[in-house]
TrEMBL record:
Coiled coil: none annotated. It comes from Gordonia defluvii. Keywords: Hydrolase. Pfam families: Abhydrolase_1. Residues 52-351 form the AB hydrolase-1 domain. The keyword Hydrolase applies. This is Alpha/beta fold hydrolase.
Length: 411
């Protein structure tokens, strides 16, 4: 009973904090949701201060109000008019007007796109720059297809292109880079696999997180230590971090349950696991048996019709939506520029906020064509973002545990 009361109190506190963010700027738009209605929340920083920028986070299931307080604070200081919608089924948009959670059937990508158009209507915004990160790039691209007249420019950060072809490319890319290829890190990963010391899903979580956040050398040290029976504590902590992205509800931060139809039925997050190491769908397939029905649209067929300037961001260490996918998208959009940021993994919005904000400024000033030449300078900006804190903690934990001596048994 004490635990349940503490959880309820924490939930109430997070809700108050999220509502406080909403009260600082934004509004609610009443939207249909099956047999009921939902008030979709949105937040806004500097109304009327130049061309607005709509930011759509990843997930699906990632909230906007609480996780991106720092982004909005920085945007306010820089004079950016930032608009962020709380995705239906998540956080402040999770419950219908009667206080009941929305149904999974009423939380779709198409509904989210329609919600976004309604948010712009409510805000009095005719046209905006649309910035999508990870899953948010799918929403951004679909918004562009359905409402092209409302897009002034677009940023696609760690983007999605096509469920089936992205999956095949990502599998090949991850395995060649981290398991099958030459070099010290793949060799160490293979040795850990052959030792049988960890499960395949554990390996998936840890290799993905550590490679993206800390790089190949830190990953090599960790898997080598784990093969020798060390670094168990930090290993478990990183596994837990990966698990929270798949099946844990963290109220007002990450809530994957009501967006399950998007994750599995529309975007195939658990589609057709192949049973080989580092399969990106493996952690999701272990959690859900929902069938992939199909995407709402064929993006490869539609992107050549985009007429607005587009910046496509690829993180050098991104193994979730790896750089070749970003390159394909940039090749399909007539007026696209590919910005390759070194030393970061998935989502510049979350791992390199200053670079993301600089790219927003460039789009507002119609300088997107110069961004590829500025990639090194953008990469070198001081790192800020929610994943940067996690990266520092992971590095610190691995540094401690991989330097400890192997314990000896007495007696």
């Amino acid at each position: 009973m004490i635990i349940l009361e503490a959880m309820a109190a924490n939930h109430a506190l997070l809700r108050r904090l999220a509502q406080r963010e909403l009260a600082s700027g934004g509004g609610l738009v009443r939207r249909p949701a099956g047999a009921t209605t939902v008030d979709v929340a949105y937040l806004r920083t500097n109304p009327g201060d130049g061309l607005p920028i709509v930011v759509i986070p990843g997930g699906p299931g990632l909230a906007s109000a609480l996780p991106y307080r720092g982004l909005r604070r920085d945007a306010t200081a820089q004079g950016l008019d930032l608009v962020m919608m709380e995705h239906r089924g998540v956080g402040l948009s999770r419950f219908d007007v009667d206080g009941a959670p929305l149904s999974v059937a009423d939380v779709t990508i198409s509904a989210a796109v329609d919600d976004l158009a309604a948010v712009l209507d409510d805000s009095g915004i005719d046209r905006a720059i649309v910035f999508g990160s990870s899953y948010g790039t799918y929403v951004a691209q679909l918004f562009g297809i359905r409402h092209p007249e409302r897009v002034a420019a677009m940023v696609l950060d760690s983007p999605i292109l096509s469920v089936v072809t992205d999956l095949a490319l990502t599998r090949d890319y991850r395995r060649q880079l981290l398991v099958d290829g030459p070099g010290a890190t793949p060799t160490a990963v293979r040795a850990l696999i052959e030792s049988g010391a960890v499960s395949s899903i554990e390996l998936n979580h840890v290799v993905t997180s550590v490679y993206e956040m800390a790089g190949p050398e830190v990953l090599r040290r960790l898997v080598t230590a784990r093969t020798k029976g060390r670094a168990k504590l930090v290993w478990r902590q990183i596994v837990r971090l990966g698990e929270t992205e798949v099946d844990d509800a963290n109220p007002y931060v990450m809530e994957p349950d009501l967006v399950a139809g998007i994750s599995y039925s529309e975007l195939g997050y658990a589609h057709d696991p192949d049973g080989l190491p580092l399969d990106p769908v493996e952690p999701f397939a272990a959690h859900s048996a929902e069938e992939f029905i199909g995407e709402p649209v064929s993006l490869p067929a539609e992107l050549p019709r985009f007429t607005w300037p587009t910046a496509v961001i690829a993180g050098e260490r991104d193994v979730r939506t790896p750089p070749p996918i970003a390159a394909q998208i940039a090749g399909l959009i007539p007026d696209a520029s590919l910005i390759e940021l070194t030393g970061i993994g998935h989502s510049a919005l979350d791992s390199h906020r200053r670079a993301a904000l600089a790219i927003m400024h460039a789009l507002r000033e119609n300088r997107h064509a110069t961004l590829p030449q500025q990639a090194a300078d953008l990469s070198a900006l001081p790192r800020r973002g929610s994943l940067q804190t996690a990266s520092l903690l992971i590095r610190a934990g691995i540094n401690v545990e991989t330097r400890l001596p192997v314990p000896t048994r007495r007696g």
